[in-house]
Amino acid sequence: MIRRNTPTKEAVLNLLLNSRKALSHDAIEKQLNIEINRATIYRVLNRFCEDGIVHKIVAEDGKQYFAICKKCENPQEVIQHHFHFRCLSCDTIECLQVPVEYSVPNGYEVQNTNCVLTGVCNDCS
Amino acid sequence: MIRRNTPTKEAVLNLLLNSRKALSHDAIEKQLNIEINRATIYRVLNRFCEDGIVHKIVAEDGKQYFAICKKCENPQEVIQHHFHFRCLSCDTIECLQVPVEYSVPNGYEVQNTNCVLTGVCNDCS
DNA sequence: GTATTATTGCAATAAAATCGCAATAAACAT
DNA sequence: ATGTTTATTGCGATTTTATTGCAATAATAC
């Protein structure tokens, strides 16, 4: 499946690139200056996830949030396994530069992590 | 608000007490041998959460799972801050006896954690 | 320019969770 | 026991989030 470049794709990607925070579908739709169909936004985002451009976080509110996969020193690993912080005051989610560290019992194989800390962020405290 | 004892409450609590795993609303409804309304189950579960009898985990699937708050050596703390494991094979969630450890940047205040590791559990591997 | 097919918009649908309201039934007092 | 208070329940409707089918559109390659 060869990807094509479209205005929609560009717009959503730029939004994410310029955002310090992870964005919900809702937030993306509101911040876009061009009008894009709800379903299309979801499809674009899911394609980004498949392609490893973006990662998805599901917060306690049950909603999906999307953030650019930042290229760090330790590409593959660090991208997925970091904590996220959800601020109850400004209602945003951001990627923390804090790795998720754990050990699991024998026989358990971890493929992915979804770790969200909730509280009040620096901006709001 | 004084709580009352009802068959519904008993039934749901017993289910959770006897389960090794965290249960979704759906799973609870199916496993109950008495018929209880969907909304009622949610309300009972939410009351348990308010009362600190049960804790709620939201997984990547966006669904809520409920598990009894086990009394450990270190009551308050350990209850909330442990990892959960979601097995993609048997589609269950369980509490791991693995504490969530992290450090957050200055000015951040963590009130809660929602950490789920996803993969294949011991039973399925 | 034309053909191929990835992408989009629209409407419908699915699924999870909550809410308002009237009816029911625990808990307590008499 | 009986009655009163009000927490709890059932029902139906609603909200919110996310996905899907299908025909129309448009990006890419020739």
TrEMBL record, chains A, B:
Keywords, in A-Z order: Iron, Metal-binding, Zinc
Cofactor: Mn(2+); Fe(2+); Zn(2+)
Zinc recorded as keyword: yes
Residues binding Zn(2+), per UniProt: 87, 90, 121, 124
Residues involved in Fe cation binding: 81
Cofactor note: Binds 1 Mn(2+) or Fe(2+) ion per subunit. Binds 1 zinc ion per subunit.
GO biological process: negative regulation of DNA-templated transcription; regulation of secondary metabolite biosynthetic process
Protein name: Fur family transcriptional regulator, ferric uptake regulator
Species name: Wenyingzhuangia marina
